[in-house]
User: Fold this.
Amino acid sequence: MARVVVTGRIPDAGLDMLRKNHDVFAWAEDSPMPREKLLDVVNGATAIVSLLTEKIDEEVLVAAGTQLRIVANVAVGFNNIDVAACAARNIVATNTPGVLTEATADVAMALILMTTRQLGKGERIVRSGEPWQWGMFYMLGTSVQGHQLGIIGLGQIGVALARRAKAFGMTIAYSNRRPVDPTIGAELDATRMDLRTLLASSDVVSLHCPYSPATHHLMSSEQFEAMKPTAYLINTARGPIVDEAALVEALQNDTIAGAGLDVFEREPLVHPGLMRLDNVVLLPHLGSATIETRTAMATLAAANVIAVLNGETPPTPINPVA
Ligand code: DGY
Assistant:
């Protein structure tokens, strides 16, 4: 029986699939597994099912041993895995694209509405007991209808968000290295722009690119300066794509109007400057957090493991081993 190590809690549906034919060690606590424990339990593993809270690097691969055949991430983002180190050792790395697209796009759309209509601030006022009164000019936001959504990284989640935004009357611009499939471009009536033009012309900018050294601090002071002072930034991708210190400055100085963040640079820490600002909505990385989505993520990761351990091609490889 192959040893499968699951580094964090995942829905039973995924564990049940793995337990049928394998010897499964699964971390059962909600808090992330301590690094020392991870290095210890992976020893002898043929498969690691990882969560984004665990860094799967060279040290972990060495600790696992030469029998390790797959690292299956239960996330679409895989910046926690050293994919090159896996490839160098002929270890397959997989992720879970597709199954969390709609849930994440829902949260991105929710953040757009929360920021442009000041819904977070409004909720805080009511809960605080602070006196309030309907008024013609009380807490005015801006409409999304007729305004431009600029999507940086129009992949599956970006497209799902664009569909929602179009239904809310927004026009769609995007910045990608390559144009999107013409059918999707036509459906969304989406205009491709270089990053600078997109930043300068969009009313809402939403990040959907993967995090890598190339996208580290893609959004920093220069980019905030390029945005309209009335524009909003939304991030449901990965925290370090945004230079948080520069964002705090941009929000404090009204360089941009506001931000909606589901992810943070030093998660779960949040820049203290953000905590003090009313023009930012802060969510604790909830993009894929529905039971249906998490179950689909767990079962897809399990299917990846089972396929590789059966000598088959996994459904969603990151780096197919040649
Ligand atoms: C992912 O899959 O990358 C998400 O961030 C998890 O919620």
User: Anything to note?
Assistant: Residues 132 and 147 are 29 Å apart (CA to CA). Residues 52, 75-77, 100, 287-288 surround (2R)-2,3-dihydroxypropanoic acid (CB under 6 Å). The chain has a mean pLDDT of 97.
